[in-house]
């Protein structure tokens, strides 16, 4: 009499194989290097400083680090009154928008159909500046930004004229902003970790013009004074 195959044993063996494969997939995901996960989706544009609360921070007579080089940040005197560089009416007026073209590495600011300013910028190099439509939610006269690791580590005190923006997909704590940059002069080419770098003079001009209207060294947008739209599009070279 021919010997019958044990069908139950075959099914059990197949089930065990599927379970083992599932376990391997789970372990592979858990054991992926943290650096890989961070590069794919970092917690924010400034991976160290954004784990703390965003706020005004002025630190004179300290040294910054960028691209492995020590950098001397600009001195900032909060007591010094600055003259706003408004050109097209009061900064509380509606119809303002900022457009950032990643392809050409340029920024244009409009009030209605009138061009307020146009300048070169530097978008994300180590992590891309995300395209989308955003709103400015807070303006800081200066703050500290830091992040990266190894040769990519940076620590930059007194980053001037910071305008943080957000939307429903890129939250406030991701730390993306428009701001002045003193640590390089390579505008027109990607140079940042996700933010939009500008020459300090251009950043000041935009900061004074953009909504919400500047009330102090820290100015939050609210329902009565909403932030200006920031529209980012294109693809960085």
UniProtKB/TrEMBL annotation:
GO terms for biological process: cell wall organization; peptidoglycan-protein cross-linking; regulation of cell shape. The keyword Ribosomal protein does not apply. InterPro entries: LD-transpeptidase, LD_TPept_cat_dom, Transpep_catalytic_dom. It holds the Pfam family YkuD. Pathway: Cell wall biogenesis; peptidoglycan biosynthesis. The keyword Transmembrane applies. GO terms for molecular function: peptidoglycan L,D-transpeptidase activity; transferase activity. Residues 96-233 form the L,D-TPase catalytic domain. The chain crosses the membrane at residues 12-32. Keywords: Cell shape, Cell wall biogenesis/degradation, Membrane, Peptidoglycan synthesis, Transferase, Transmembrane, Transmembrane helix. GO terms for cellular component: extracellular region. The active site is at residues 179, 195. This is L,D-TPase catalytic domain-containing protein.
